[in-house]
Amino acid sequence: MRVPIDWLSEYVEVELTPVELSERLAMTGTEVARVLHHGPLSADNFVVGKVLSAEQHPDADRLRVCSVDTGDSEPRTIVCGAPNVAAGQTVSVALPGAVMPDGTKLGEAKLRGIKSSGMILAEDELGIGGEHDGIMVLTDDLAAGTPLAGVFAVSSDVLEPELTPNRGDCGGLYGIAREVHAATGAALSAPPWSDDPGASTLGSAPAGISVTVDDAALCPRFTARIFENVTVGRSPIWLKARLAAAGQRSISNVVDITNYVMLVSGHPLHAFDLDRIAGGELTVRAARDGEKLTTLDGEERTLDGDICLIADADGPTSLAGVMGGSRSEVSDQTTSVLLEVAVWDGANINRTSTRLGLRSEASSRFEKGLSPEGALEAQAMASALMLELTGATLVDGTLDVGGDGPAANVIRLRDARIISLLGTPIARERSQAILEALGFTVTAADDGLDVTVPHWRRDDVTREADLIEEVARINGLESLPATLPLNRTGLAGGLSREQRMIRRAEDVLVGRGLSEIVGWSFTDPQICDRLLLDDDHPLRALVVIENPMSSAQSVMRPSILPSLLDAAAYNMARGAEGCALFESGSVYRAGPSDDGMAASEHHGLGAIVTGPVREPSWADAQPPAARIESAHALVSSVLGALGIEWEVEDGELPFLHPGRTAMIRTAEGLLGWFGEVHPAVAASWEIEQPIAALAIDIGRASALAPTHSIFSDLTSFPPLREDLAVIVPSGVAAASVVSCIIAAGSPLVSRAEVFDVYSGEQVGEGRVSLALHVDFAAGDRTLSDEDVAPLREKIVAALKVELDGELRG
Amino acid sequence: MIERVTEIQKQAEAEISAASSSAALEDLRVQYLGRKAELPQLLRDVAQLPPEQRGEAGRTANQARQSLEAMIEAAAAGFEAAEMSAALADDNVDVTLPGSPLETRGHHHLLSATRREIEDVFCGLGYSVVEGPEVETVHYNFDALNHDPAHPARARSDTFYIEGGGEGPEQTLLRTHTSPMQIRIMEQAPPPIALIVPGRVFRRDSDATHTPQFHQIEGLLVDEGVTLADLKGTLLAFARAIFGADRELRLRPHFFPFTEPSVEVDVSCFMCEKGATSGGERCSLCKGTGWLEVLGSGMVDPNVFAAVSEHGYDPDTHQGFAFGLGIERIAMLKHGVPDLRFFYENDLRFLRQFG
Ligand SMILES: [Zn+2]
Q1: Which is the most buried residue in A28, A42, A564, A774, by most CB within 10 A?
Q2: How near does any CA of chain A get to the CA of B23, in Å?
Q3: Last residue of some domain: B90, B124, B154?
Q4: Which of A281, A276, A273, A311 is nearest to A293 (CA)?
Q5: pLDDT averaged over chain A?
């Protein structure tokens, strides 16, 4: 919405500069997005002129040499190219020194040998209208030399306020004027609809038209007046200039009147050519599915059953509250006008304009919800202009279906409540003055004020808290004290244990050299194919967005892995040899979750490492490349930091290397996986080297982490360490060797850990040698070799029997 | 023999005193005290002397040996320290070479680091941190938060809806703010409550200043007697913790569906003095206004309490405030990040600058 200050000043005596006014409005709740300027920066040197003579230029067919009286002692010579310039016209003249809207300063210039000292102006040269079909001709009652700014708005600052959705009343200049009045104390004029030429016609409907409203909920009020003997033509220049400054194009006097009144009152109007309303009757009803209507912009619209329209005997003729139909449009031939001012259901208008992709000045106002009383205000103001500018006569009667809105609400505003909500008092007199300035009616009450809400704030101000907001915002929040809540017993706050565990897990990865990324939750549905998922793989249960911004962002990611691969590919394409990345964030699966949420989401922790495990350096030129064991080590670090007991087991996942896939097993079930990314998957991200990867359901892991550790005495009786080298068939998992040793050595084996792996000639084909540290300990004594020897024999025997293993050497 | 011992001792003492390195001392030790040296030989020969001479000769020879040993040891100690110093001085490297292994520290993403920083401020003020689902329902995201049925944010042009996500209040969508957790928490816990909700949110918007996914922190405090002035004090504490101790706050009235009164909160710019830099130029961060818009907030609308009244919230006795801020915005302001796009590109050259 554009608010030309020049125009606004008709309703409120603005004394602040536009910037000061914007700041004041911003501090009272009306943000001003921009301050613009319309027309030349200054109206100086723009005056009224009288064309005394207009002669053909001797050397140019299309130029006239005019003698123009601009109020100076001598007429001045102006060369003019307009075909319509003629002696006797009253015109607008830019004198030398005038600065045109594009910033050029007018000087004296010779045109084909004749000096021109000024310029006779066409409308578009002042930013009014887009046509350059000739100079603008003014009325003859204006004296030569009159400053043009006294005739119409040549130059105006324009505010562009950003209205909040609750302030439908500010959709018109008068509503803004009322805010300016309340916010600055500037005097407010009486509303421009105070004098209604049709006041005497209220209460009875005009002859020749009938209106039926099928659904009063969709159309709380429908009013109409009929004008006859209308002469459709051009609007006067002051009207065109105002519309132009507000960003509207002039169309014809009748249409301009509807737009002008809307811009002032905030209430949209629509003019029908009465003779083109078939059958002389209008019906407001819901559209039928598939019904068609051609709107004023020439588009044929297909409607549905939720859309409200206005129909005549021949069918739909207007899209209610959004845009008129072309069939009943006012044209040059129109002589009778039906002026409709209605109120529509805001939500329905919003739905319609969204569904049709059609937003108009009218729909954007109606969707905020307008008051029924405003309809007659707009009728009053428009009637006066119709009579004045189109020569029309008003047919007796005002059609009114629905009438005024509900009785005004009276709300008690208690002094005590102001203090308790704001934390600071506002004097009762001050509250009263503010509310009255905003148009509320106020009477004194024991403990405060009884406040009657004006119709234009009926939907917005319904409770005491709403009144307090009004008083507080106009009073200003600058002086509000800054305090802290007093009554804070029983609130300890802080992170939950789970949140602390998740932070710890992230910190572990950062400490191990991984950098955190933040990926997109959105992904491409083709992600499933890129991850080589089978048709019935559970990860294919994607959460699908109904209205995505693009197909590449049309589903929610089922895993963090693709986000990590995206980031790795991005960085490797930019020269990184490898990278170590992790993300901690949501992954999504369709269908209700265990805890009743609409979709299953869990907090995942994913990481990948590819390329050198450390950055190469002068002392460490070729660090090994990351492989599955790098991922394994990271899992150990993370779960170790959380104190979670876990085991590795062989696994199978379509997007991982089939020989390098491991599952993370806890007593409570699987917690995630680690391994190397399947080379075909990596290739799809154009990465040609092994990628170690892991994923942990960190949300669940954080809950499994033990709340606290219990002391074990590991110092009084230190363990006895033995190293064993065991040769087993190469298919035997290291974990089974470890568990075999622990089981056979029970209860004195406290730990067994592989520290070396060897395969080759010395151990024979198909066999592998594992070297392990084995710790023996008892809680009540230091063990001796005699204690351990029999256990050692039991372990050797068990390895032989269970795993076909033998001691090496 | 005694004379010989004395003679050897004198000679040895002179040579030891003259020795110039620990190697020379070692040679002297071998020469005078080694297995084949004369003095030990004399000592061994004591046994062959007549018994009456053995005592004195043995003592003398033994004393001479011990004295020489001590003397060599003392001299050697002096040489060793000096020689080690000399050797270490020779054993030098270029200490300006990079460390190895090179930097192994990773980095928290700037958004996470900022989120943690803000969380920690509010934890210090006694708030709990709660998180909620990103796939929400119309009920929690809009209806229960007092959004008008025609509120433009509900439009399919603004909000992502989930396919097959049902109809009416139960229809599912991607949450457009972290505010739904206000309701979920109030349904679970009676007042008083004080919490913040960090998380990822989604809006159907993509241009220079919007990404369809971004991060918010929502705050909610409900108790008896909580005022707008308390909101101001709380946010002032936050602003000073994040942007510096000298910050001031400015509240501008605004409109949000779920608060009444509603205010936009500006923090005084930390790069300038009332819009002008120390060089007198117009500050580019606050565009010369002296203020930075950082968050929206307000007093919880009574309708929101009415929606959870059965859980112990009474619009007549309970008051509270709520606020919501964008983590991206805070991070951009504080760290001078010029463009939102950096947050989601995950370029290591960006990531390594922070966290
Ligand atoms: Zn600044």
Answers
A1: A564
A2: 35
A3: B90
A4: A311
A5: 93
